Amino acid sequence: KLNEVREEFFRRLRYCDDKFGMPTREGSATDRGRVYLEFGQPDEIENHPFESGSRPYEIWYYYTLKRTFVFVDRNGDGDYRLTESR
């Protein structure tokens, strides 16, 4: 069981670094990476990359955990910061 938990952690770590990595830091050190490491794959992700009048943002839903996370790319550099958690 401990090996399964460890393997899952390293699988998530690799995914974060591949998916959320930035030139200045590893994906696991980003806000999205930290949430993914802790909670795993969201049940649903709403992507809003090009809405008029707003910055790019994502909403991650974890229905079974009753958690929602909102990330906003304030600077347009792909660094989505956690702005809301409920």
Mean pLDDT metric: 95
Helix percentage? 25-40%
Compute the CA-based radius of gyration: 14 Å
Shape: globular
Low-confidence stretches: none
Biggest sheet: strand arrangement: 1-2-3-4
Based on secondary structure, the structural category is alpha+beta
Biggest β-sheet strands, sense, barrel:
4 strands, antiparallel
Question: How many beta-strand runs?
Answer: 4
Total of helices: 2
Work out the strand percent: 25-35%
Give the termini separation. Answer: 30 Å
Helix-strand sequence: HHEEEE
Secondary structure blueprint with pairings:
Elements (H helix, E strand, L loop, with lengths): L1 H19 L10 H9 L4 E5 L8 E6 L4 E6 L8 E5 L1
Antiparallel strand pairs: 1-2, 2-3, 3-4
Helix pairs in contact: 1-2
Attribute tags:
alpha+beta; 86 residues; 2 helices
Commentary on this structure:
The protein is of the alpha+beta class and 86 residues long. It has two helices and four strands; from the N terminus they run H-H-E-E-E-E. It has a four-stranded antiparallel sheet with strand order 1-2-3-4, with helices on one face.
